[in-house]
Give the backbone structure.
Amino acid sequence: MELKAVGMQIPEGCNLILGQSHFIKTVEDLYKIMVNISSQVKFGIAFCEASGLCLLRTTGNDRTLEDTAIKNALAIGAGHSFIILLKEAYPINFLNAIKQCPEVCTIFCATANPVEVIVAETQQGRGILGVIDGFSPKGLETAEDVKIRQGFLRQIGYKL
């Protein structure tokens, strides 16, 4: 077995949701979730089929994000994994609905941070072991940091 760290491309101002699913209709169901929650969101989805034709299935409403999702999915190359790249929205607004999607098994991450996907490769194929999302902590939050965090949450509409 070989282990690899695969860096994800996340365009400026975008977020990435990486997960695992189990059925060919994942792209259709994820598309419906995205547009039903927000008519404003721009997104691209890529899904790696793990049986049958083993094709990369794609959809979205933004060609650039879809193309980048395709590049990321091909770089990972793990069966039944999916990537959603989105902008003009935050993952927090979509995660519960995505988790409730019958095909979705797990979410590895939802972030705008730099991401490395840890992939194991065997003779059979590839699988995602986990992710490195962002950077290691640099210290403990201070009272001033709490005020900044709470101010930011108010600024983006998540607190009154």
